[in-house]
Design a protein that fits this description.
The chain is mainly α. It has one domain.
Length: 189
């Protein structure tokens, strides 16, 4: 019997977690507002499901890439903070880590990869929720129930704050993990 979860390798899971999920969240409220505001567009969407799906997929990927870019800029700010806390050791370790070739694949490298994925997801979600929140404001202008908009804006804001806070903590752990990996690897037979 085939294993359903075997399809979710890192090659599939990484873009799903860092591009598609944040991208879909980020454009969702905007898409709803567009089809609500423009009746002709709503009609076109209802008639052309496959075309709409392709366009939404492309828009989701585009938005996800934009959010990932904003997240990378935020990560640079986190790097600056880490350098202040470590007297520049964070960036030195980062560049040394990039130049390091491991003969074996220590457990710590897999852990570091998982942390990078988590960091990118957290930053992507923070950006996506900000975008979704702005789309909610447009929906409020279009007439969506104000209490619903306020509730959803609070949820969006909470996810944004959560994403940024968790990204900061993940960044710290990732920095320590890279520094530890540079101390040398113990090979046990």
């Amino acid at each position: 019997m085939p294993n359903f979860f075997s399809a979710f390798t890192n090659d599939v899971f990484r873009p799903l977690a860092t591009l598609l999920i944040p991208g879909a969240i980020g454009i969702s409220t905007w898409f709803i507002a567009l089809i609500w505001h423009f009746p002709k567009l709503r009609e076109l969407v209802m008639q052309s499901h496959s075309d709409t799906g392709l366009i939404l997929l492309l828009a989701t990927i585009f938005a996800g890439m934009v959010f990932e870019d904003f997240g990378a800029r935020w990560e640079v700010l986190l790097d600056g903070g880490a350098d202040k806390r470590t007297d520049g050791e964070h960036t030195k370790n980062w560049w040394k880590y990039l130049r390091t070739a491991f003969k074996s694949d220590p457990v710590g490298r897999r852990y570091a990869r998982a942390l990078v994925l988590r960091l990118k997801f957290e930053l992507g979600i923070a950006c996506a929720m900000t975008s979704a929140g702005l789309g909610l404001i447009w929906l409020a202008v279009l007439g969506l129930n104000l209490s619903a908009v306020i509730s959803l804006l609070v949820i969006s804001a909470l996810f944004t704050v959560w994403g940024l806070k968790e990204a900061k903590e993940t960044h710290k752990v990732l920095s320590k993990t890279r520094a530890a990996l540079l101390q040398g690897i113990e090979v046990v037979e």
